[in-house]
Amino acid sequence: MRNLEGKVALITGGTKGIGYGVAQALLNQGLKVIITSRSKAAANKAASELAAKTNTANAILGVEADVRYLESQQNAVKQAVEIFGSLDVVVANAGLGHFGSIEELTTQQWNDVIDTNLTGVFNSIKASVDALKKSKGYYITISSLAGTNFFAGGSAYNASKFGVTGFTQAVMLDLRKYGVKVSTIMPGSVSTYFNGNEPSDKGAWKIQIEDIGELVVDLLKMNPRTLPSKIEVRPTTPPSK
User: Fold this and answer.
1) Domains of the chain
2) Catalytic-role residue among 20, 139, 157, 193
3) Measuring CA to CA, how many Å separate 85 from each of 77, 82, 97, 152, 202?
4) Which pLDDT tens digit goes with each residue over 204-236?
5) Is 157 a catalytic residue?
6) Residue 14 burial (C-beta neighbours within 10 Å; 0-12, 13-18, 19+)
7) Structure confidence by residue, pLDDT tens digits, 126-153
8) Which residues pair with 77 in a beta bridge?
């Protein structure tokens, strides 16, 4: 997919953080982009901001969709194809985290994390697989270094991201025979609003959302014969402990 001009991308959870950074990077490369959110208002607001930043008013669309439900993802894919004509890239980014000891973690918190972070990734590819096979497209999941490195208080989040990492690698093997490329990106500390954090100058050492956007662009421009299937990304110089 060396020439990205006019390609169509769907990004789940694209209203802020990594999804927002990826959307901006893809718009700057000439792609048409659909961003999703559980909130229609948030999706429209982010789409308007992105259109203004990238001067791409006719290339960005905000859609209300909830990754926890397959039908909702199918509707987002349908809108992408009907409005923009095809679907070439899906970035499964939507995610959340509840953290705490297993003694404190509630069943509802567990379900929230697994349903969004893991089942949501399944729903995203399940809804789009036919479109991606048709376009010989690219499916990218956003996992985490927490998908290989466990930590106390992370049982739900670790489980979800370990699952995303393994799921993505298996899907890669399933779909490469159709010319569909599949990769997972596993960032460490990223300067986002995740888990109540507030991006600030104090987080300048962290990976920035535009860095992940740049990485997605690099993956899409990679020679078709080569597939970086799992990419771990870390801050270069984290603070000393």
Assistant:
1) 8-233 (3.40.50.720)
2) 157
3) 11, 6, 35, 46, 43
4) 889 999 999 999 999 999 999 999 999 999 999
5) yes
6) buried
7) 999 999 999 999 999 999 999 999 999 9
8) none
